[in-house]
Design brief:
Layout: E1 9-11, E2 16-20, H1 27-41, E3 48-53, H2 64-76, H3 78-84, E4 85-91, H4 95-107, E5 114-117, H5 120-133
Helix pairs in contact: 1-2, 2-4
Length: 138
């Protein structure tokens, strides 16, 4: 995996990546992230897992348009996620962030297992374990 496919993403292992959202972002920045992610996802061949850290994100800055963009993206890549995504561990620190994640997943239920955590280390541990329990690419 190309570690530099986007500045918000860090590779932990070849199968496990971490996305750390900034405090705020524009629609244009979110579109650029989705485009980079689409290009990157075209390289998937086996199982992958993600840690998504929203602890820095100001949840109120993610308006309805951005929430819809997340939901639309999830819907667009559902088949890819079913085949390759072992799980997503979401790290959050408050109820506003929890509400944001809930709103997005309510609009488009994810095609993968997911769990929420307060501690990034616990999230990484869960994501690693999800890779060991995920069946062969479906």
């Amino acid at each position: 995996m190309d570690e530099a496919f986007h500045p918000w993403v860090t590779r932990i292992t070849p199968q496990l990546s971490m996305l750390v959202f900034p405090e705020t972002f524009t629609v244009e920045e979110l579109n650029a992230y989705f485009e980079a992610l689409r290009r990157h996802q075209s390289t998937y061949s086996g199982s992958i897992a993600w840690v998504v850290d929203v602890t820095q994100l100001r949840a109120r800055s993610v308006d309805a348009k951005k929430r819809r963009m997340f939901a639309d993206y999830e819907s667009a890549v559902e088949a890819l996620h079913r085949k390759h995504c072992a799980g997503v561990a979401v790290v959050m620190k408050n109820q506003l962030q929890r509400g944001l994640v809930t709103a997005v997943y309510w609009m488009t239920p994810p095609a993968y297992r997911w769990a929420t955590f307060v501690d990034r280390g616990d999230a990484i541990t869960w994501a690693r374990k999800s890779l060991t329990t995920f069946g062969p690419a479906r």
